[in-house]
């Protein structure tokens, strides 16, 4: 008799549309588990952390929160940021607190073009486009190093230093990750994003490590592209891309560009991975709390649902992950689109369409 495999997931919807899209993703995963004939199940625990929690406690999360999270199989995150808390306080107090302390050093951000969703790129109408941004997620420009000083000298005299950190170890592990990922893809190519013409210390180390690691992967094509040129390439020659590896800030910016090219920030998925599995990994849409549309029920749930598919991959449920992706494509392809991608459907309509496509799929597991 087969036993049910239960995955324990900590959900942190946090702020704004984060709550709407996490709820949508949970429903999709529960529907998937419900049709698995007892093969697997999800055991959810929701944490109330975020900007409302801050308003009550002065903290973004429980001081013992990391301890509470560390034994979960994964974390499913919404988005953080609201007007009552400065953005750097909310981000560092919750999301970066988790990614940094759980050493989630690899951030995977696929750029997917969906049927029925119009891309602002004319090229996307006739060219198959599909690439993934691999973001170094533990150091670089978001290492949190620096400080502010000299405000005592009076108005206009304060200084601030924000230091980017590049370690050989940090560069090497993200590059090896990118090369291994490239080997699993049809086009085996890694594009390294650099700015070593201007940033002569950190980015030169980045380039040197890239060139050294590349020698171990002779079957994978490589290129090294300056970040400014890469932003142009995303638009003019995206068919040349397969795996794009970049530092924390560069990848953050480029992946938003990628999702905008695919049609909307609301479509973009991401996985913050601790590849050694010493800590739980965290899955979240790329977008923020979208205060302009929060509470209206019109947010696009696809970024969060596609992030849930990445979580299924992390659990080894690859067939199920592909089923969720196929259900997303079936929903968009049949015109279930929220306003950000030119439709009139709301969050609920799109979620329901995805669940329906999932549970009607002939390959029900
Ligand atoms: N990972 C995170 O938690 C994260 C990421 C980015 C920004 N933020 C925070 O979110 C807040 C708002 O930031 P912002 O406005 O720069 O970025 P944002 O991603 O929240 O919104 C940018 C634009 O994209 C749209 N958008 C975002 N998600 C959408 C969705 N699911 N469906 C449809 N449209 C969507 C918004 O309506 C807005 O027009 C800030 O406090 C910021 O610090 C958090």
TrEMBL record:
It holds the Pfam family Iso_dh. It catalyses: (R)-malate + NAD(+) = pyruvate + CO2 + NADH. SUPFAM superfamilies: Isocitrate/Isopropylmalate dehydrogenase-like (SSF53659). Keywords: Lyase, Manganese, Metal-binding, NAD, Oxidoreductase. Residues 8-354 form the Isopropylmalate dehydrogenase-like domain. InterPro entries: ICDH/IPMDH, IsoCit/isopropylmalate_DH_CS, IsoPropMal-DH-like_dom, TTC_DH. The keyword Cell division does not apply. GO terms for molecular function: D-malate dehydrogenase (decarboxylating) (NAD+) activity; lyase activity; magnesium ion binding; NAD binding. Gene3D superfamilies: Isopropylmalate Dehydrogenase. It is an enzyme of class 1 (oxidoreductase). Its cofactor is Mn(2+); Mg(2+). Its EC number is 1.1.1.83. Belongs to the isocitrate and isopropylmalate dehydrogenases family. This is D-malate dehydrogenase (decarboxylating).
């Amino acid at each position: 008799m087969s036993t049910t495999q239960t995955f324990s997931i900590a959900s942190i919807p946090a702020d704004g549309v984060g709550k709407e899209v996490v709820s949508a993703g949970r429903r999709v995963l529960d529907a998937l588990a419900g049709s698995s004939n007892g093969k697997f199940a999800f055991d959810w625990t929701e944490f109330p952390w975020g900007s409302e929690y801050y308003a009550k406690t002065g903290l973004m999360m429980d001081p013992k929160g990391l301890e509470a999270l560390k034994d979960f199989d994964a974390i499913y995150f919404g988005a953080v940021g609201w007007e009552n808390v400065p953005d750097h306080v909310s981000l560092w107090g919750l999301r970066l607190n988790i990614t940094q302390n759980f050493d989630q050093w690899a951030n995977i951000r696929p750029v997917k073009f969906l049927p029925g969703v119009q891309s602002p790129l004319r090229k996307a109408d006739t060219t198959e486009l599909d690439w993934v941004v691999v973001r170094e997620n533990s150091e670089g420009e978001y290492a949190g190093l620096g400080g502010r000083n000299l405000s005592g000298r009076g108005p206009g005299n304060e200084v601030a230093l924000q230091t980017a950190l590049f370690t050989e170890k940090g560069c090497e592990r993200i590059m090896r990750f990118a090369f291994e990922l490239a080997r699993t893809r049809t086009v085996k190519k890694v594009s390294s994003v650099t700015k070593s013409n201007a940033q002569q210390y950190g980015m030169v180390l980045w380039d040197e490590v890239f060139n050294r690691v590349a020698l171990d992967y002779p079957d994978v094509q490589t290129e090294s592209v300056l970040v400014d040129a890469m932003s142009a390439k995303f638009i003019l020659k995206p068919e040349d891309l397969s795996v794009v590896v970049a530092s924390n800030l560069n990848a953050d910016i480029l992946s938003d560009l990628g999702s905008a090219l695919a049609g909307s920030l609301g479509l973009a998925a991401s996985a913050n991975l601790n590849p050694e599995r010493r800590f739980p990994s965290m899955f979240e849409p790329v977008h923020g709390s979208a205060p302009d549309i929060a509470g209206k029920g019109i947010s696009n749930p696809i970024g969060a649902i596609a992030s849930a598919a990445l979580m299924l991959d992390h659990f080894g449920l690859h067939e199920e992950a592909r089923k969720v992706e196929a259900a997303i494509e079936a929903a968009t392809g049949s015109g279930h689109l929220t306003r950000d991608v030119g439709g009139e459907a709301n969050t609920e309509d799109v979620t329901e369409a995805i669940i329906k496509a999932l549970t009607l799929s002939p390959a029900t597991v």
